[in-house]
Write a structure and sequence with these properties.
By secondary structure, this protein is mainly β. Helices cover 8% and strands 39% of the residues.
């Protein structure tokens, strides 16, 4: 496990590029991503493309090399965007996604639009302001379990096990807000 402030001389200036610079000490680098909520206590999310992770996690590479993630030349590590807007644009691809703010630390590889990190902590979740039920445009008031994921719902489409935003904050231990899209 890397220590905050440990020196890692890696920065890639463009995705797949070969320029590497010594950028000095890495303390904490914030990032943004989207995910599905699959469990609330403990908080567990499912990434947009693959993988599940908890509120505080160390990345593991499952390649034959068994190297420390992230690794140049491998796709391992936790991905996140630098800009909130790039991640929030992905919320339109699937109903039920949430915007996640993370703190990345340890070894970090910087790319053009985002970064891959060795470790991450979930700092906050932003729920889209509209109910995720198809054809509904009511405002989000709670989170309801639907099959194997939790989705934002309005009062009309809430289930009997729904959690309002204050109960959601208490169950997950992270800041929760509503994101206007």
């Amino acid at each position: 496990m890397a220590q905050i402030g440990e020196k890692y001389p890696y920065q890639i200036n463009n995705y797949g590029g070969n320029q590497i610079e010594d950028i000095g000490l890495i303390e904490v680098s914030n990032g943004w991503k989207v995910a599905h909520i699959i469990h609330l206590n403990p908080l567990i999310l499912s990434g947009l493309s693959h993988g599940i992770y908890s509120q505080s996690e160390v990345s593991t590479c499952y390649s034959r090399d068994q190297h420390v993630a992230p690794f140049i030349g491998c796709a391992c590590g936790f991905y996140s965007f630098y800009e909130k807007s790039r991640a929030s644009d992905l919320l339109t691809y699937a109903r039920g996604l949430v915007l996640v703010k993370v703190e990345n630390y340890g070894k970090i590889i910087f790319h053009t639009y985002g970064q891959r990190s060795q470790e991450q902590d979930i700092i906050s979740l932003s729920l889209p302001n509209k109910c995720s039920k198809i054809f509904c445009s009511n405002n989000t008031t709670n989170l309801s379990q639907f099959k194997n994921k939790y989705k934002q719902r309005c009062d009309k489409h809430a289930s009997n096990t729904s959690l309002n935003l204050s109960a959601l904050r208490a169950n997950t231990g992270v800041d929760i807000d509503i994101l206007a899209l």
